[in-house]
## 1
Amino acid sequence: MSSKTHSTFPISLSKRIISLFSHEGELVLDPFVGSGTTLVAARDLNRNAVGFDLKEDYVKLCQSRLASETLFNHAQQLAIQDEALNISNYLEPESVGLIWTSPPYANLLNRKRKNKSRRGDTRKNEQFMKVEKYSQDPRDLGTMSLEQYSTVMGDIFERLLPLLKYKGHCVINVPDMWWENERITIHVSLIEELRKRGYELRNIIIWDRTNIVNRIGIFGWPSNYITMGVTFEYLLDFWRPPQNEDIQQGNSDGSIEGNSESGMDTQCQTWK
Ligand SMILES: C[S@@+](CC[C@H](N)C(=O)[O-])C[C@H]1O[C@@H](n2cnc3c(N)ncnc32)[C@H](O)[C@@H]1O
């Protein structure tokens, strides 16, 4: 397990998504829970949450992160070891308020890391020239080619759709990547695939992880500009489209439907 892989995903971002797109007491689902950032954020925000992961190690890690009790908080969070394709065996239709996840990113991580996005001393860190991947399990999305990955992601999310409430959001965090000097637009493949499977894209939010990647502030901006493709990630915001009667009553406009705690009121956002 690479602890590094998980340390770069900020809990503050997870909390922002959860408070924007769900209400207290609702159920948040993370189909690729990893070290459990979603579950910890959900606990802090009094949301019920369930996360799934192929790997026992990650499920145990989630359980240990959740071990500390919080007073006055009645919501429950649970990590289950199973593959994402099986999630519909555990949950009732329309029981999920929000799907929120940071999935594996096809087999692009199965190669030697050159840390080109990192500058100076941080480039030759413990990941340098190591192959970083989650496992060799054939069910692990991190081992698949982009084509196979997109299809299996489609299969997984198609099965998740009936579990989601109508107008419930599904937010997926994904980067693009560079491979042999070509930009691999994982976010485009995912948008196309999920649209085919019945989801509607509502919004794309970009979050800037420059400071996390390079551990430098604003003075590093010229080099950040060059490597921008890997220093921001997309938050693809889909929803389960409303039922027909809702559409006829005109209850489905083009605006962001989330819980407006975070004040997000435009169609394109960049978050730092
Ligand atoms: C990017 S990590 C999740 C990171 C997470 N946001 C965190 O905070 O740690 C992706 C996870 O998906 C899991 N995974 C890969 N393929 C899976 C599958 N088919 N079903 C369930 N989990 C899977 C991996 O074991 C890995 O822990």
## 2
Amino acid sequence: MFDPGKSLNIGIPEIDEAHEKLDRLAKKVERSIIANVSVAETRKHFLTFISATETHFENEKRVFSQYGLPGMNAHRAEHKSIIQLLTEAESSISETNDAWRKTLMDLMDILTRHIVTFDFEVKTHRGVKH
Ligand SMILES: [Fe+2]
Ligand SMILES: [Fe+2]
């Protein structure tokens, strides 16, 4: 998903560490799809990724609210739609139809896009303030 700890750091350790953890979990999902492991095992990794993403979004809400950030509603709306996409993808996982593999591969970099568009607003905002 991304090069851990490098260009995607926003400078808040708790958030950066969570992003790196999500990156590791996303890579596990990608690897299990590429290696064609069992559907059950891939689903297990994907569920772990979804659950860690949900926890991370809750933490972000708490941490980012300290910075009086404008546009937090749009940010939260994007979190919600990401969880919805992940949940829909999870329910499309099937033993008999392989289409979900491509869906999951396409989704695995969704958080990278989210970080550079939304989470980076916090970095910019803090940069202006301090
Ligand atoms: Fe984030
Ligand atoms: Fe976020």
## 3
Amino acid sequence: MGQDRAKGDKGEGVPRRGLLVATGVTVAAGVSALAFREELGRLWWQIPGVDKQRTEGEVDQPGARWVAASAANLRLADRPADYEIDKIVVHVTQGSYATAIKVFRDPAHAAAAHYVIRARDGEITQMARELDVAFHAGNRSYNEHSVGIEHEGFVDRPSSFTKAMYESSARLAADICGRYDIPIDREHIVGHNEVPGATHTDPGPHWDWDRYMELIRRAASRPKSTTAAER
Ligand SMILES: [Zn+2]
């Protein structure tokens, strides 16, 4: 399950915003108010670490449905321009799919993952853009450099981990690795329990890593997922 964010995780964006505005003011000195606004708008695009233009409902993973996590449970970023993405963190929800989605939408929860996968059929809900830092690993650096995938189920219930869920997650993981050139190995695809300082045990002893890694390798050797438009 997603975890309390690391200390100091929140508020990272504040100094950057301050810097951006200051830069905009300097550049725009002596120009009209309209030109100033245009200049600021242009700079907003150029300076790494600020928001890329986003379209509501847009997903990174073709076929995923979009349900936005609360903005309080993530930090807007511009990955991989500002933070390289080099890891995937595997989680188990310790609750139902619906509950995981509900708590990630709750601003008081202080955690969210990028993806939640349903056990029954492998449906994928994306809740944070891969651009953004979601608070799921309980470790600031890991949050900044990883994509978090939650799997519906319980660590002590092996029947949670269905074939449909493994296959769907493997396809997703293979596509994420493809997007950011992440090596498909256990150094880069880790369990929440393997994150330094982790107090969580997920995905637990029943998560079949050999099977999962093999499925990811197989998925990676097939063409990546495509959107309807691309087909
Ligand atoms: Zn977890």
## 4
Amino acid sequence: NKRQVLTITSDLMPVIQVVYSVNNDEAAGASVEFVVPKDLGDGYVNNKLENYKFRFRRVFDQTAGQEEIFETIAQPVADRVLAGYNGTIFAYGQTNSGKTFTITGGARSYGDRGIIPRTLSYLYQHIIQDSTMVYTTHISYLEIYNNVCYDLLDRQLEACRLEDLPTVTIMHDSEQNIQLRNLSIQQSANEEEALNLLFLGDTHRMTAETLLNKASTRSHCIFTVYLCGRQPGSATVRRSKLHLVDLAGSERVNKMALGGQLLTEAKYINVSLHYLEQVIISLSESRAHIPYRNSLMTSVLRDSLGGNCMTTMISTISVDKTNLKESMSTCRFAQRVALIKNEAVLNEEEDPVLLIARLKRENQSLRDELAMVTGEPRQEQLTQYEIQKLEVQVKDFLEDTDPEATLALGTDLQKIRRCFTLLKVLSLSATQCLPTVLSQLIRDKAPNVDLYSTAR
Ligand SMILES: Nc1ncnc2c1ncn2[C@@H]1O[C@H](COP(=O)(O)OP(=O)(O)OP(=O)(O)O)[C@@H](O)[C@H]1O
Ligand SMILES: [Mg+2]
């Protein structure tokens, strides 16, 4: 239930790389080890240790491709979501380390598609092939920018600015469940529709050029797939959610030489990541109070952190000696996250409409059985449902050509009386119709009609 993996990206800037080694064949998983040179002046101050080793479920080195990342990380989560469990995959790491590349992908080639498009493709392929279940899928795309939530899937505006997007507010109900008011949840019947929604949301995302990243995503984004599955004819439905989260990059303000809007963004990003860290620390130390409500991001991801969800965290680092401090802090943070225990449960419930119909039927047959066993006439009136059922029974009985056919009414006197009344009404209406039928026949001078026997 707890997983954390690490991806290492090559740096795009001319750098002197830190010496590191990756080992994916350890009995307990994998590890990455940094060898810190003694004379490292501009980065990490290295007084005592030379080697720092961090253990993970899996470490992906620079040669790892998007397909491998998808198969190892996202596919198992997608399988659980299809089976009715909630899932979350989130990417955490310093700016320019490859979070957006991992979650959404790169635009250079088709092979650069990230976890979201690959997961959508996988989910819809499964949905098309599985004839034992009927699925409906919906999508939402939420952005948290400067501590305000925005709906990225708003279709009303064509070329819109972020401030024109609808803002989303968080409401807590009495059981501490959150409701996202004003977040549109769009139906997406197939992969193409889902990809169009992803594209629409991405065009609305807040990006900016920073010193380190030409297209730095300056917000936290949560792409959510809502899945509802049921077997045909069954009243039991499975509802599951998959959050795919691209966090804004942690960054050092002085290192980035930020000012103006970028500085304001960086402060909000750092504050919200600090609150995320507080939640993670409280959870990993099993404290009584977990400060989810301190930030919008932790409120929205409440279930993913220590709740009903299978959560996988991807930490991204950049192996450049100027980033060593950030890489170490990312690894330490990831190891804390791995201490959190989530409890994922199957989200199965009965559809209320189908459930009521089934309970009505059961209730009726139990009443019939009870009346049969006790032999006591019941006091209350027949219900509308019972009357309708009797009318169908009488109709079937009259239409049945089998002379042995019977009307099974049990011992309920009210039902027996009702059936007699029904039969009387039918008989009377048939008799009253007869003169009309006869005159019609005579008028038409219908050949081969034995009028005498018909009248008799
Ligand atoms: N595995 C990779 N292979 C090739 N290019 C990569 C890889 N990872 C990242 N990149 C490239 O590195 C640059 C930075 O990556 P990305 O934008 O994903 O970083 P980020 O962590 O999202 O940064 P920020 O927090 O600033 O948004 C991009 O140009 C991206 O295409
Ligand atoms: Mg990004």
